[in-house]
Amino acid sequence: MAILRAVVKWIIVLCFAIFCIQYWLDHKSFVFSHDEIAAITKNHIGSSAEKSFQNVLKELRQKYRGHILPDKDLQWIFMNAGGWMGQMYVVHASLTEYLLFFGTAIETTGHSGRYWANISDTVLTGTFRQWHEGQLTYKTYKPGETVYHYWGEATAVSWTDNTWMVEYGRGFIPSTLGFALSDTFFSTQDYLSLFYILRIYAKALLQEGGFYFIELKDYLKQAL
Ligand SMILES: *[C@@H]1O[C@H](CO)[C@@H](O)[C@H](O)[C@H]1NC(C)=O
């Protein structure tokens, strides 16, 4: 009986937390938008992904002052999840948004993950193939095109050699970490990469923390 009561109590707490987070997501303002990031990325499609990333980063720094991580913190990090392997370069992350460069030099395929977040990828080079649940054919995306992955959706994803893109995610970002870290934790056991991922997320949260503080101060000023 006591166990049942405890389980029910935790389910109620969990539902309440989910409700609160959802309310927050529906009412808060965001730093970036899917359309803005896709437009900025498309401005810089060229011959090499490296050059494109440099130029995208430059434009991001101008447009979103203070929200992009400093150069000394930026690094490419291996990411294993859903059976695929890629590398990511996180330039911004908070509790509700992330922005990163992503891709692979060697073709790779796997499960997209099912998230409490909407994710968009704008392709710079290569090919992104997305196969939706319930469909018998896949869709192919080329440079300049944006691939959307809505929350709750699962797809199969496949990238050819040298596919690179800019990815923006908006939702409850900590909830995506379970999938993002799963293969690193349980399969590759590459704890150095795991450490890099957690370290960059911690740094990004600290940087954004300052903005939350300013927001809260403004809010309290208005309320009083
Ligand atoms: C995710 O996309 C859906 C469908 O467009 C939308 O209703 C929802 O508000 C989006 N969520 C966030 C956090 O942007």
TrEMBL record:
First-listed, main subcellular location of the protein, grouped into a coarse class: endoplasmic reticulum
Annotated TM spans: 7-25
GO CC term (a single one): endoplasmic reticulum membrane
Localization: Endoplasmic reticulum membrane; Nucleus inner membrane; Nucleus outer membrane
InterPro entries associated with the record: ERG2_sigma1_rcpt-like
Keyword terms of this UniProt record: Endoplasmic reticulum, Membrane, Transmembrane, Transmembrane helix
Family to which the UniProt record says this protein belongs: Belongs to the ERG2 family.
Protein name per its UniProtKB record: Sigma non-opioid intracellular receptor 1
Lineage: Eukaryota, Metazoa, Spiralia, Lophotrochozoa, Mollusca
